[in-house]
Amino acid sequence: MNDDNTSSAQEGGDVAAAPPPSKKIKSDEVDQAPDSEWPEAWLMPNDECVDQKAPNKLEPNVPVTVEELKALGICYWKLDATAYTYPALAVPWDPKDSVDPVLSKIRDDRGYSYADIITVHPDTLPEYETKVKSFFEEHIHDAEEIRFILGGSGYFDVRNKKDEWVRIHVKAGDLMTLPEGIYHRFSVDDTDMIHAMRLFVGQPVWTPFNRPSADVHESRKKYIEEYLEEEKKVED
Ligand SMILES: CSCCC(=O)C(=O)O
Ligand SMILES: [Fe+2]
Ligand code: NI
């Protein structure tokens, strides 16, 4: 994207040039976290994942940069989840009940009108191991996936531009969004505990479209166009 908002060099001096039409309205949205605060991310081995709850790092580890995560369409904010209390389970949870001003601002900036709160743990989620396996199926959604981690930790895996798995280790305070149409999956880590808020714009639709049938889904095509083919676009 071309972020250069400066006007061209002055020519005459006696005639004031009309200001360029203001295309960029200064955004007052909550800033995403500085790179140093993003969660740790790394490449996973290519072969089939035998233990989804293990870190599955390459030997030696290959870290994935924040720049690369951003280029895939991922957004990240760091909040203070420990300063506020959230129920272990609330389906739904009214996002208007937020008393965290940062969460409220992100909610309003991005139109998050629905939320719920779940705890993925053997004692709180019926058929725990079955659910853990089903979260780990590679899929897309036809909407953004928004997760605010309130406690515990887990892994969101996303496909990078080379179709390799990138593992992102999320923990309390992490608010991360995955764009519509990105191939991804979720796993608990070896602590078997994650407490998370799921947000949504409008009525929630959690339907996963699994690979490979999702390859022809409109949301996948849109994602490819927007994020995977950008080197083909020519901008002046
Ligand atoms: C992190 S909470 C439970 C899993 C989940 O959100 C998901 O699979 O998208
Ligand atoms: Fe998901
Ligand atoms: Ni998903």
TrEMBL record:
Fe(2+) binds at residues 139, 141, 145, 184. Its cofactor is Fe(2+); Ni(2+). Pfam families: ARD. Its main location: cytoplasm. Binds either 1 Fe or Ni cation per monomer. Iron-binding promotes an acireductone dioxygenase reaction producing 2-keto-4-methylthiobutyrate, while nickel-binding promotes an acireductone dioxygenase reaction producing 3-(methylsulfanyl)propanoate. Residues 1-10 have a biased composition (Polar residues). The keyword Nucleus applies. It is an enzyme of class 1 (oxidoreductase). Residues 1-40 are annotated as: Disordered. Keywords: Amino-acid biosynthesis, Cytoplasm, Dioxygenase, Iron, Metal-binding, Methionine biosynthesis, Nickel, Nucleus, Oxidoreductase. It is found in: Cytoplasm; Nucleus. Ni(2+) binds at residues 139, 141, 145, 184. Its EC number is 1.13.11.54, 1.13.11.53. It comes from the Eukaryota. The keyword Oxidoreductase applies. GO terms for molecular function: acireductone dioxygenase (Ni2+-requiring) activity; acireductone dioxygenase [iron(II)-requiring] activity; iron ion binding; nickel cation binding. It catalyses: 1,2-dihydroxy-5-(methylsulfanyl)pent-1-en-3-one + O2 = 4-methylsulfanyl-2-oxobutanoate + formate + 2 H(+); 1,2-dihydroxy-5-(methylsulfanyl)pent-1-en-3-one + O2 = 3-(methylsulfanyl)propanoate + CO + formate + 2 H(+). GO terms for cellular component: cytoplasm; nucleus. One of its GO terms (biological process) is L-methionine salvage from methylthioadenosine. Transmembrane segments: none annotated. Pathway: Amino-acid biosynthesis; L-methionine biosynthesis via salvage pathway; L-methionine from S-methyl-5-thio-alpha-D-ribose 1-phosphate: step 5/6. Catalyzes 2 different reactions between oxygen and the acireductone 1,2-dihydroxy-3-keto-5-methylthiopentene (DHK-MTPene) depending upon the metal bound in the active site. Fe-containing acireductone dioxygenase (Fe-ARD) produces formate and 2-keto-4-methylthiobutyrate (KMTB), the alpha-ketoacid precursor of methionine in the methionine recycle pathway. Ni-containing acireductone dioxygenase (Ni-ARD) produces methylthiopropionate, carbon monoxide and formate, and does not lie on the methionine recycle pathway. Belongs to the acireductone dioxygenase (ARD) family. PANTHER family: ACIREDUCTONE DIOXYGENASE (PTHR23418). This is Acireductone dioxygenase.
